[in-house]
């Protein structure tokens, strides 16, 4: 079991940054990062404190029992996170997909909105622009895509997606597993 990845996935599902989780657990952002990358192992007390803040009972955290595979997902299966400050909404199309090899989301960005900026990683990113147009910043390069166009890149540099029009833009975004 990859404990760090499970903690990271729970944190992301709660919509918390590493800094916010650190503040709520009296730990540093750096230490949370080390735990999530399995570079440090928390004490049992610290581990249970993290789980409490994330709202996950230890039994549930460690339950990896074989479940029947679900194949079709409906609107009721979706989880949504809204960042009003940055002007975007994320809908996870498959529950707990952040624990899988790829993570499909529906990303909706308001006019002048920006999706959060990501650090370099080994993940691949695919997006299909459903409506509007977006600007993709990958390192110092900038790319533009409009409705009906496809975006694909390796996330080896800092990257960010921004709305590039006066209306809402929406993308189907799929990211492969890596440390985000």
What does it look like?
- It is a single chain.
- The chain starts with a helix and ends with a strand.
- The chain folds into two domains: 3-62, Orthogonal Bundle (434 Repressor (Amino-terminal Domain)); 75-176, Jelly Rolls.
- Helices cover 24% and strands 31% of the residues.
- The strands form two sheets. It has a six-stranded antiparallel beta sheet, with no helix packed on it. The protein has a three-stranded antiparallel beta sheet with strand order 6-5-8, with no helix packed on it.
- The chain has helices at 3-13, 18-25, 29-36, 44-54, 58-62; strands at 79-83, 88-92, 102-109, 124-131, 133-138, 141-146, 150-154, 159-163, 169-176.
- Strand 5 and strand 6 form a beta hairpin.
Gyration radius, in Å = 17 Å
Gross CATH architecture of the largest domain = Sandwich
CATH topology of the largest domain: Jelly Rolls
Distance between the termini: 19 Å
Main pleated-sheet profile: 6 strands, antiparallel
* Overall helicity: 10-25%
Helix/strand/pairing category: alpha+beta
Number of domains: 2
Q: Give the CATH level 1 class of the largest domain.
A: Mainly Beta
Q: What is the overall shape?
A: globular
Report the order of strands and helices. Answer: HHHHHEEEEEEEEE
Strand line-up across the major sheet: 1-2-3-9-4-7
| Number of distinct helices | 5
Total strands: 9
Q: Look at the structure and give the mean pLDDT.
A: 90
């Amino acid at each position: 079991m990859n404990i760090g990845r499970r903690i990271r996935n729970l944190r992301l599902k709660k919509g918390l940054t590493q800094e916010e989780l650190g503040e709520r657990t009296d730990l540093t952002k750096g230490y949370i990062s080390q735990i999530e990358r399995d570079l440090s192992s928390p004490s049992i007390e610290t581990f249970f404190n993290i789980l409490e803040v994330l709202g996950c009972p230890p039994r549930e955290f460690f339950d990896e029992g074989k479940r029947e595979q679900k194949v079709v997902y409906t609107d009721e299966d979706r989880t949504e996170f809204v960042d009003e400050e940055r002007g975007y909404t994320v809908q996870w199309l498959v529950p707990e997909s952040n624990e899988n090899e790829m993570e499909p989301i529906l990303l909706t960005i308001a006019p002048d909105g920006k999706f959060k900026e990501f650090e370099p990683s080994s993940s691949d990113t695919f997006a299909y622009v459903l409506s509007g147009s977006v600007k993709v910043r990958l390192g110092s390069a900038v790319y533009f895509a409009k409705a009906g166009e496809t975006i694909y890149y390796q996330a080896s540099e800092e990257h960010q997606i921004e709305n590039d029009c006066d209306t809402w833009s929406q993308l189907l975004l799929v990211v492969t597993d890596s440390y985000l």
